[in-house]
Amino acid sequence: MIRIPEKKYSHVQNLHIEQLKQPVHDAIQFYLNCCNIISGDLNTSQLDKNIKNNFKKMTMKSFLANISTEKYDELDIQEVFRNQNFKAEFLNYYSHIKDLLTEMLDPKSMIYFEHILGKKPESLIFVHDYLFSNYSMLKTDEEKQVFEPNITNKGAVFKLIESIYDYNNFRDGRLVSGWGAYNLCEELEINVCPYCNRIYTFTVVNLKREITRPELDHYFPRSKFPIFAISFYNLIPSCKVCNSSIKKDEYLKIDEYLHPYINCLSPFYHFDFISLDVEATKGENKNNKIFINKNGFVDTKSDNFLNKFLIEDIYDRHKNIVPIFAKKHTRYPDSALNELSKLLDIPKEELLLILYTPPEEEDIINTSLGKLQRDLYLKFRSFYDV
To answer: Which of 205, 200, 164 is nearest to 184 (CA)?
Structure first.
């Protein structure tokens, strides 16, 4: 895995929070107003109190549908409050839900909504632990705790949180004008999947037409952590293979696995290969075995990541790259490079870079198979006297 450099995302993180904070604030405030109306602190005419966005009636209905017993098509806002047509889970715990929402609007709280949108990955899990510890009284209709460790039960509170941190509308660019999944991916410019460093993930928009972009992996799956559904550090631009085919909806614990915004593969781990016959050493066939050389070191997070994303299995299919390097070494051995260096008055180190054209360290993240290519270059470089 390749770590996403901070220079690529620091400004984007701030932009993401700035763009999303108003719609998230207003959704929290809407549900808080609902609680206050039920408790008698507000009347229904004040449903939009402290809400900056001018909510349309259909928006209010879609919010209310998450906590009401009425179907969306049959929902009448005044009647819902007059007859208390709310799901039992919401009615039973609305005072605790009110406390939860109030905390989300408190800048001093651990679960302040702007913190949730921008907290780093290692901090997000503490947010969930805080919810589990401090809101253990919240139960679903099946009497299961809402914030169970690593899984959130899909009751009224789940849907309420899901609609506050609304990934579906963010993804489609409907949560706020001018900021959605395509905008985020355009700003980040992550052109190769950071998980596998193989598949290109360009964002392409032509004449306002959205053509392609990376998938956004939820490191903490939104099916289990809906509160992190649009958190910046929980949206990892990635390829379809890594996101949809390999990782899927699995929760990878942050203290056991690498995370692209905070970790890279152990610096002691490198791609390496073994030639399985003499012809392969000369680049005359692809009979090589590609593997991760750990150089005698053990890094548990790196090992878990490699196993989870099947890196060695997948990369062994790229053995066609090894003969390209081997042929160059066969045709340009150390003695030939020495002569060229004297003839052209160019340092041998520079000639090696011209011959093997490895990506620079900082360019690996934007180069398909960049780490493999650079590691192979370093291996073949060791065969020369430089």
So the answer is: 205
State how far the Cα of 218 lies from the Cα of 247, in Å rounded to an integer.
10
Q: Which two tokens stand for residue 120?
A: 């780093």
SS3 content of the chain, % helix, strand, coil (to 5): 50, 10, 40
Task: Give me 140's structure tokens.
Answer: 């679903």
Tokens of 36: 């206050």
**Distance between CA atoms of residues 369 and 374, nearest Å:** 9
Q: What is the mean pLDDT of the chain?
A: 94
Q: What are phi and psi of 105, to 5 degrees?
A: -95, 0
pLDDT higher than threshold 80 for residue 65: yes
Q: Are 37 and 81 in contact (CB under 8 A)?
A: yes
d(CA 227, CA 161): 6
| Residue 129 region by backbone torsions, left for phi larger than 0, else alpha for psi between -120 and 50, else beta | alpha
Exposed, middle or buried: residue 322 (CB in 10 Å: 0-12, 13-18, 19+)?
Answer: buried
**What would the pLDDT profile of 197-254 be if each residue is shown by its tens digit?**
999 999 999 887 899 999 999 999 999 999 999 999 999 999 999 999 999 999 999 9
Instruction: State how far the Cα of 336 lies from the Cα of 334, in Å rounded to an integer.
Output: 5
Collect contacts of 207-213 with beta carbons under 8 A, ≥24 apart.
Answer: 210/182, 213/181, 213/182, 213/185, 213/186, 213/237
Which structure tokens are listed for 119?
């907290």
pTM of the model: 0.92
Residue of 386, 371, 282 lying closest to 325 (CA atoms): 282
CA gap 133, 67 in Å, rounded: 24
